[in-house]
Amino acid sequence: AEPGDALPMPTESGSVTVISGGVDLDEAERMKQAAGRYPLRVVFSVPGGNYAVPDEFALMQGGNTMVKIPSAGPWLLIDLPPGAYTMQARVEGRLFHRTVTVSRRGSTVYWEVPDRSS
Length: 118
Hints:
Layout: E1 11-13, E2 16-21, H1 25-34, E3 40-45, E4 56-61, E5 64-70, E6 75-79, E7 83-91, E8 94-102, E9 107-112
Parallel strand pairs: 3-9
Antiparallel strand pairs: 1-2, 2-6, 3-6, 4-5, 4-7, 7-8
């Protein structure tokens, strides 16, 4: 593989592995191609379709924070067991929450974060 083909370095926390990136188009394309190997895929955007990069992303299950990473995304590929999770994203100082149920086939979440004006 060419050096430019690599995915961003994963963040590992317990049984969860997160790859965060996709800010530039080449990297986003590589993450799309790798997405099938990850049970949970999250793509952050703002209204109008531009990518968004939360200041912080956390994944929780049953009150336990399983992973927390700074400046996340806009693409997140998350390797984790099937189950129900709560995701938290901090964008411009505001917290947003979303629940997701990850199936064996995997789940893709397109998370549109409202901008300040809305």
